[in-house]
Amino acid sequence: MSPSATHPAAEEHVEGLAHHFTSLEQQHEASRLGMWAFLATEVMFFGGVFTGYAVYRNLYPEAFRLGSHHLDVTLGAINTAVLIGSSLTMALAIRGAQVGKRSAQVGLVLATMALGAAFLVIKGFEYHEKWTGHLMPGPGFDVAVFGAEGGHARIFFSFYFVMTGLHAFHMVVGLALLAWIARRAARGEFTPKHHAALEMTGLYWHFVDLVWIFLFPLLYLIGRHA
Amino acid sequence: MSAHVVPLKTYYAIFAALLCGTALTVWISFFDLGPLNTVVAITIAVIKALLVVLYFMHVRYSSRLTWVFAAAGFVWLVLMIGFTIADFDTRGWI
């Protein structure tokens, strides 16, 4: 039995189409579902930490409020805007691929990387300030600043560093993926019909933005008024 | 299906809405609304997240099957956090 008898379309080669898919649309849909399945595991991964946060904030609301006051709202808000901006450039880069503009894709992916790097630099300044201010959980943590709530405030800062640290790690992975994508875009590998790698990297990048959209109010904005 | 090109002005509008949401959540956090502070902050975050998922992540223009995959993770997350909070919040009742 010849392959062409069962698969007439297999005779003509479609650029970028793997042999086990019948069309680029089907292949693209499979990529998208696979990526969302992965992102669901990421939601669960961060979800565990968010649940832990909810429990401890419920137990020690005053300590979380006091701890939150030591975070820099201005830098946090600027970083939120920077990440939202990087999501915009990412979405526009994918649109660039959809309409077949190669130079726009490369420029926009590089802009996304620049904004992502800016986020990490600002985060670095914040971490440095916490380190010199003795707010890093560990032997150097200054419990006296928080009075009777000192021990519980240390839990808040543990959540702060674990949550923002995991998020920052995801950003670093995202930057590496984007560097790879920028190189492929520069070679003109992404066409209006075939740009799954660019689109899936975009989904990942937007997901990292999503996590920060929740981290910012939950860590920086607790009881600001009091 | 795969080649739905979203108009540029849609992306700019979503970007502007996300920035406004950020400014709004910072501004509101300076007022004392009691327990409502948390409710308002999470509501704004959920709206911003929906805008990102539906427009930037193209779920609005994706197949129904993609909707199911995208929703699954968040549904279980809400269950996990919801039941945990329900437990801790009602322990004082007994």
> Could you spell the SSE succession of chain B in H and E letters?
HHH
Give the largest interface.
A-B, 56 and 52 residues
CATH superfamily of chain A: Cytochrome c oxidase, subunit III, four-helix bundle
Helix content of chain A: over 70%
Q: Which structural class is indicated by helix and strand composition of chain B?
A: mainly alpha
Helix tally of chain B?
Answer: 3
Estimated radius of gyration of chain B: 17 Å
Outline of chain B: flat
Tell me the layout of helices and strands:
The complex is a heterodimer of chains A (226) and B (94).
Chain A: H1 3-6, H2 24-59, H3 61-68, H4 73-98, H5 102-132, H6 150-186, H7 196-220
Chain B: H1 8-28, H2 36-56, H3 64-90
Core attributes:
heterodimer, A: mainly alpha, 7 helices, 74% helix, B: 3 helices, 0% strand
How would you characterize the overall build of this protein?
The complex is a heterodimer of chains A (226) and B (94). Helix content of chain A is 74%, strand content 0%. Mean pLDDT of chain A is 91; it is low at 1-5. Chain A has 226 residues and is mainly alpha-helical. Chain A is built from seven helices and no strands. By secondary structure, chain B is an all-alpha fold. Chain B is flat. Helix content of chain B is 73%, strand content 0%. Chain B has two domains: 1-62; 63-94. The interface between A and B is large, with 56 and 52 residues.
